[in-house]
Amino acid sequence: MSLVSGSLLATGIPYYSFPMITLGPIHIRTFGLFVAVGILVGITIAARRNERYGIPSRDTERVGFILVAAGLIGARLLWAATHIEQLTGPLDVFAVWKGGLQFSGGLISAVLIAPFVTRKWPRTQKWALLDGAIMGLAVGQLIGRFGCIAVGEHLGGPTNFFLGMHYLGGVTVEGPLVVGQTYHSTAIYEVLWLIPVIAVLFWLDRRGARPGVISATFLISYGVLRFLTDILRTHDERVKGLTGAQYMCLVLIPFGLWVLWTAYRPVAAEQLVVEDASSNDSSDAVAAVAADASDSRQDDAVTADVADVLDGASELEGPSSS
Fold it and tell me: DSSP assignment, residue 279?
């Protein structure tokens, strides 16, 4: 048994595509199934977290589904634009259930429409709410990647890497593949590195990280890791040597750094201003109280002096003076 396990480990992860699950007369496309489950779980996570910041779960769910719809359209259109050779007709552009979504297109579409659908949300809580959305996005992305694995998508060239995809057969979106050969599967790699990234996000949330830190952590880590794994892809259209997702990463990384800077610098500065104002107000109040007390003591002293003078005059002039 150990020899068999060692042999499988040496040749990669055994893989046979499973684009469809058959339950009697029911046929379920696995890509669409995993994407749908990822969307539902991701929105649920975001909604429950946003409730801690005063946003009803129904509002988050409504906004989430709008952004998801926009994201799916953008993701599919960008994929179709960069995989024209895989389209057999105009209707294939809309055949999302067959596989083929470009994450960068979905993210860009969601980011463009987000300010309009969240305009009624409290402005002071935007970063905290973004953190909840990012946590849901990360988990949804992880689940959705199993759909890519199921249909044999986002593949690279042959490899001896022990975490490569050892192809045993089945219909795949990308190919053709040779049975018995091990290939890079960036979808599998992404699942593997998303697990620790998500663990860090939830750890930061439990530790009460500053609003924006969770978002920055995901944007930077996803940008770096996705850029590196996309180097291995061999079936994506490239412009000047880079995939569309890699260009997205070149934007995500500096944007994440800016979010991280914003999460610390302005918040810290505002706190200092508030503390200074508070301390100044306190000092002014103390000074005012002290001045009132001093004036009161001076008034009492003057009153006492006047009384002493009158008493002295009474004693000198006798009873008639009274």
Answer: H
Instruction: Report pLDDT digits (tens) over 165-218.
Output: 999 999 998 889 999 999 999 999 999 999 999 999 999 999 989 988 999 999
- Both 170 and 255 in one domain: the answer is yes
214 and 312 belong to one structural domain: no
Express each pLDDT in 83-106 by its tens digit: 666 666 666 666 665 556 666 667
Residue spans of beta strands (DSSP E) within 77-141: none
Q: How far apart are CA 306 and CA 288, in angstroms?
A: 27
Who's near 262: CB < 8 A, 6+ residues apart?
127, 212
Q: Which domain holds residue 69?
A: 2-274
pLDDT tens across 11-43, in order? 899 999 999 988 888 888 898 899 889 989 999
Q: Which two tokens stand for residue 291?
A: 């001045």
DSSP-derived secondary structure for 186-246:
HHHHHHHHHHHHHHHHHHHHHTTPPTTHHHHHHHHHHHHHHHHHHTTBSSS--BTTB-HHH
Same domain for 160 and 298, yes or no, is: no
Residue type, 291: A
**Distance (Å, whole) CA 227 – CA 246:** 5
For residues 303 and 203, state if they share a domain.
no
Task: Establish if 182 belongs to a structural domain.
Answer: yes
- Structural domains in the chain (count): 2
